[in-house]
Write a sequence for this structure.
């Protein structure tokens, strides 16, 4: 019982107790008993009066009896005894005063009774003599011998009777004189009369005294005293009673209010309870909708399971409720797992975890379980509630996500992230076991070409085959991963010596070199492999991988299908490269680049129709550096995008200045493949076309053949957009790449630039001359203009002109010069035009 | 908490109901008790009778008697176990068939011991003012104490009697039925008292005469009644019991004890033995004359062997007169007409 309820009960019990006490007290003054007492007092009074009357009656009576007196006497005694008895006292009349008054009354009555007895005795004697004396006188008068006494006898009789009725002493005196006379005669008949007459006088006097004594006893007062005392007592009781009644009423009202209060609070509580119940029901419904819920008793018996529970487990409620908690366990976890859960719960702790289980139909499911113990005051669980959530789908999704995040979708090999993770783990193991491991960086040779020429699907298929080959060529403990594109890596654990690596590498090389049939075509793929070894070459994952990469590039540059193991030399090159990269970054930030310009001369007019902008690095220490020393680095580091942008803007700004001076010419700007891939170039181009005086056709974007490899369709689309803007496009270094004619046909270019390597040996190398001649012919048939680069001699000019080349560029005309020099040249050139023509003609 | 508070409420409700029963039940019970006690005596036709103004009144059966207590009292009255030797009962000396007394001047008690006084009749004792010759017992219950403890009478004690009665299953059952407290001094006395109250001699010829039956008694008896009044006998012998309701000195008109010549014994002092008052010497309770014709011998000392002797002694010493033989005959015949019936049978010698 709560203290509050206990207190309420106590108050109620106390009020009831007081009420009962008051009721009992009020009962003590029983109206019936009061009536009985009053009636008995009245009876006492009445009987006392009757007693008195009877005594008086006897004085005048002739024949009567004392039965009434006897009855009255015993009646009075009975009443007095009753007053003194326990009966009225039972009803609360405990009054010492009243008892004393009753005692006094009793003693008075007893005195009276004894006088009445005396009265009766003497009355008997008196009556006897009174009855007899007339007869005695009569008898005397019948005797004539005594006639002299007749008159006196009559007189005596008269005096006796008068005295008896009037109690006059004179009568007695006269009578006694006659008695004396009769006595003196000594005659028996006279004596007889005298004795009785004497008796009458004596007894009558005595009787009178008795009656007077009797009436002087204050029995009437005694009874009245009883009545008064009782009345006083009763009044007092009535007053107390009225107090009790008032108190009773007050208590009853209090009780009533208290009950009303209790009822009110009860109602409030009930309403609150209803609300809470509704809320709980609502929440329960919500919970049932969301989660699987089960209750387990402290003894481990399942006491409740909701609909979702039965749905998920495919067990009916009968199969769950009332059963042992073991029904919740499953074969997918060992017994110790569940023992641990139950012991955790029994110690009062919440448990949260995942449980895998199997349905009747053998489908598996995962539950996310939270089991909460409800504790009593001693922190002992009284029941458990299990909230379960079916997370089978989430589990599946998780594992899918894990696969996506860690494995390559195409080949199923671990991806870069997974590779790095595995490498990390392998490094930790290697450190611990003080063993060494090797990282192999494998890159397929010419994969891009295969991809571009045979399509992506074939490329993907090839990658899959290569992946399979790689996997089969290493031990099971070694890890093969695909970093992306055609780059694969292998982690080889427990490498004991370099020969060991050599074996593996040769194995891989030989396998990958085998012809592969894809799309009914036989392809020969080769690969370049770079190797770096822990702990010799590097001790961290990044460096290991980077070194392997470097080694791979080295291998590739040594000729395809080769292998290179990272060494000190490579390390040095690498660090040089690193320094260059840093310098370049600095150069980009501090704009250490400058543009030089080389003119392109129209074959027909001899005029400079365009210039090509060529970048130079104005190194503060090393001076002017040629682009071939840093462009590859720019390409590799991605800085080429920023630098390319600068070149485009710088060149066009210069063009705008020249056009303002009235020099009309085109501007050739080299654009890197990465710039095209970046996608910002279109926007940049549009901005540049807004420059004053710049016509779209003035800009000639020069793209290298190798830069166009890759996503051809997208590139072609982009280049078409440039062409739509009116910008001209040239294919640079034509002949050095793959020179796919099919490809060339699709490109929206307007110019081809024959690489200087083909021009240099004209007219000595017949091969070069044939190539140059063929290229010019081909371009002509494709309606493309041709620019010859590296033109240095008249022979070359003559040969090229002869075969229909459109433009020349080279030292013969002018070396690349800075903007100021070029400007001077341009101004002078028109004046010297004839001079040129003259020279040209002279040469011819 | 729930069950606990339920219990509290049940207990409280129980207390309330209990209190109501305790307080209300006795008053209901009282009502029924009062109802049974109300019973009216047979009314008297005052016009047809000569009851009014007569010193002698007819006897009527007392009204408030419990028949079952009377029956139990009767059984106890005749039970020898009330005496120490279990040899005598109340009825041994108070022979109902012999006028409620015995025929000897003084009775024989336990172990054949002889008492000093003549045993008075047990009939109509309820009508007496008190019991014993000297009136030392104000009530019948008080009277019982006398013979029970008197060594020459029953010579017993209450513990003995109660023990004896408790050994009887019949008494146990009877008492338990009538008295909550079972066998106690009070319950024994009350049942014997009830029986004694029922011992009234009803329907005597003289009573019938008083109530209007002219032929109930002889002419002589009627004359005897007149003599009885004329001589003054009726001054003391009056009331329904013809005496028994007052005290009177023996020898008002002559020295009875001197004439008796046997000296004064303590019992001769009469009421003096009770009150110690000089004036009460030789004062005795006036005996009832209802069964006088059946209960010889007479007086406290049993000195009068016949009724005639008794009448003569009374007229001489109490009335100071002489009566003729004829008057004595008439009075005796009147006295004989006072004998009534018990259980429908007229009492006889």
């Amino acid at each position: 019982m709560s203290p509050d309820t206990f207190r309420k009960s106590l108050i109620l019990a106390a009020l009831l107790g007081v009420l009962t006490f008051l009721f009992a007290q009020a009962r003590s003054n029983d109206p019936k008993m009061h009536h009985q007492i009053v009636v008995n007092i009245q009876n006492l009074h009445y009987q006392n009066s009757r007693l008195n009357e009877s005594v008086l009656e006897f004085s005048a009576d002739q024949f009567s009896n004392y039965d009434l007196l006897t009855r009255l006497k015993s009646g009075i005694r009975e009443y007095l005894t009753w007053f003194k008895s326990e009966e009225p006292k039972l009803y609360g009349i405990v009054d010492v005063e009243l008892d004393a008054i009753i005692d006094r009354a009793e003693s008075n009555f007893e005195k009276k009774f004894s006088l009445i007895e005396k009265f009766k005795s003497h009355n008997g004697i008196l009556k006897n003599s009174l009855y007899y004396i007339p007869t005695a006188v009569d008898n005397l008068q019948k005797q004539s011998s005594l006639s002299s006494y007749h008159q006196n006898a009559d007189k005596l009789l008269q005096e006796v009777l008068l005295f008896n009725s009037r109690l006059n002493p004179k009568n007695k005196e006269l009578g006694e004189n006659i008695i004396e006379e009769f006595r003196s005669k000594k005659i028996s008949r006279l004596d007889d009369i005298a004795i009785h007459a004497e008796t009458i006088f004596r007894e009558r006097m005595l009787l009178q005294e008795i009656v007077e004594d009797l009436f002087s006893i204050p029995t009437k007062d005694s009874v009245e005293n009883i009545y008064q005392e009782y009345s006083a007592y009763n009044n007092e009781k009535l007053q107390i009673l009225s107090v009790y009644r008032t108190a009773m009423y007050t208590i009853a009202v209090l009780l009533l209010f208290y009950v009303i209060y209790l009822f009110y609070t009860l109602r409030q509580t009930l309403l609150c309870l209803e609300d809470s119940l509704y809320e709980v029901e609502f929440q329960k419904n919500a919970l049932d909708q969301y989660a699987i819920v089960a209750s387990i008793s402290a003894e481990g018996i399942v006491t409740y399971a909701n609909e979702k529970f039965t749905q998920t487990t495919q067990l009916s409620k009968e199969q769950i409720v009332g059963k042992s908690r073991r029904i919740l366990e499953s074969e997918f976890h060992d017994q110790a797992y569940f023992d641990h859960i139950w012991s955790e719960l029994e110690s009062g702790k919440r448990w949260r975890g995942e449980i895998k289980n199997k349905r009747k139909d053998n489908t598996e499911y995962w539950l996310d379980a939270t089991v909460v113990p409800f504790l009593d005051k001693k922190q002992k669980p009284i029941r458990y509630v299990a909230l379960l959530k079916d997370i089978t789908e989430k589990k599946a999704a998780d594992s899918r996500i894990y696969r996506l995040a860690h494995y390559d979708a195409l080949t199923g090999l671990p991806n870069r992230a997974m590779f790095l993770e595995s490498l990390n783990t392998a490094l930790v193991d290697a450190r611990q076991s003080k063993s060494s491991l090797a990282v192999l960086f494998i890159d397929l040779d010419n994969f891009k070409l295969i991809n571009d020429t045979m399509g992506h699907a074939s490329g993907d298929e090839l990658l899959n085959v290569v992946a399979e080959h790689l996997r089969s060529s290493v031990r099971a403990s070694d890890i093969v991963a695909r970093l992306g594109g055609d780059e694969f890596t292998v982690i080889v654990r427990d490498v004991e010596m370099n020969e060991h690596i050599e074996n593996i590498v040769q194995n891989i090389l030989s396998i990958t070199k085998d012809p592969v049939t894809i799309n009914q075509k036989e392809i020969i793929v080769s690969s370049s492999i770079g190797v770096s070894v822990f702990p010799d070459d590097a001790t961290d994952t990044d460096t290991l991988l980077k070194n392997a990469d470097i080694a791979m590039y080295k291998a590739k540059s040594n000729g395809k299908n080769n292998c290179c193991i990272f060494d000190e030399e490579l390390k040095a090159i690498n660090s040089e490269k690193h320094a260059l990269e840093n310098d370049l970054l600095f150069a980009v930030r501090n704009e250490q680049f400058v543009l030089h310009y080389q003119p392109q001369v129209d074959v027909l007019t001899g005029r400079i129709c365009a210039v090509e902008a060529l970048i130079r690095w104005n190194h503060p220490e090393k001076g002017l550096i040629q682009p071939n020393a840093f462009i590859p680095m720019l390409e590799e580091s991605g800085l080429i995008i920023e630098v390319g942008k600068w070149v485009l803007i710088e060149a066009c700004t210069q063009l705008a200045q020249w056009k303002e001076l009235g020099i009309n010419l085109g501007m050739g700007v080299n654009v890197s493949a990465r710039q095209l891939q970046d996608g910002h170039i279109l926007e940049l181009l549009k901005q540049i076309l807004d420059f004053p005086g710049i016509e779209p056709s003035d800009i000639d974007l020069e793209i290298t053949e190798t830069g166009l490899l890759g996503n051809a369709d997208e590139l072609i689309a982009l280049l078409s957009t440039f062409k739509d803007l009116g910008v001209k496009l040239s294919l640079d270094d034509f002949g050095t790449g793959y020179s796919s004619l099919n490809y060339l046909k699709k490109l929206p270019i307007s110019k081809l630039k024959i690489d200087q390597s083909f021009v240099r040996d004209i007219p000595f190398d017949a091969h070069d001359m044939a190539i140059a001649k063929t290229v010019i012919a081909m371009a002509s048939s494709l309606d493309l203009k041709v620019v010859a680069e590296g033109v240095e001699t008249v022979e070359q000019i003559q040969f090229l002109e002869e075969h229909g080349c459109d433009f020349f560029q080279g030292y013969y005309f002018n070396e690349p010069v800075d903007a100021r020099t070029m400007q001077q040249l341009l101004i002078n050139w028109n004046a010297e035009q004839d001079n040129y023509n003259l020279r040209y003609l002279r040469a011819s | 908490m729930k069950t606990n508070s339920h219990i509290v409420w049940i207990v409280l409700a129980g207390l309330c109901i209990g209190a109501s029963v305790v307080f209300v039940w006795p008053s209901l019970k009282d009502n029924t008790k009062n109802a049974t006690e109300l019973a009216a005596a047979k009314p008297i036709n005052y016009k047809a009778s000569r009851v009014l103004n007569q010193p002698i009144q007819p006897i009527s059966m007392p009204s408030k008697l419990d028949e079952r207590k009377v029956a139990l009292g009767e059984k106890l009255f005749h039970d020898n176990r009330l005496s120490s030797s279990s040899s005598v009962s109340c009825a041994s000396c108070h022979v109902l068939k012999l006028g409620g007394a015995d025929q000897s001047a003084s009775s024989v008690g336990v172990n054949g011991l002889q008492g000093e006084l003549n045993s008075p009749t047990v009939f109509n004792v309820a009508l007496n003012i008190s019991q014993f010759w000297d009136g030392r017992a104000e009530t019948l219950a008080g009277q019982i104490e006398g013979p029970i403890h008197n060594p020459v009478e029953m010579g017993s004690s209450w513990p003995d009697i109660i023990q004896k009665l408790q050994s009887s299953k019949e008494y146990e059952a009877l008492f338990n039925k009538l008295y909550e407290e079972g066998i106690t001094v009070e319950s024994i006395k009350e049942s014997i008292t009830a029986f004694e109250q029922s011992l009234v001699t009803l329907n005597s010829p003289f009573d019938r005469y008083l109530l209007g039956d002219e032929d109930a008694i002889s002419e002589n008896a009627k004359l005897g009644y007149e003599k009885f009044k004329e001589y003054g006998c009726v001054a003391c012998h009056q009331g329904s019991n013809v005496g028994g309701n007052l005290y009177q000195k023996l020898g008002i008109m002559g020295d009875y004890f001197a004439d008796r010549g046997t000296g004064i014994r303590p019992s001769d002092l009469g009421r003096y033995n009770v009150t110690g008052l000089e004036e009460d010497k030789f004062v005795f309770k006036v005996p009832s004359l209802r069964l006088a014709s059946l209960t010889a011998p007479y007086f406290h000392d049993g000195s009068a062997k016949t009724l005639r002797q008794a009448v003569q002694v009374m007229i001489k010493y109490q009335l100071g007169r002489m009566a003729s033989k004829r008057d004595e005959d008439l009075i005796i015949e009147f006295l004989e007409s006072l004998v009534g019936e018990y259980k429908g049978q007229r009492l006889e010698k």
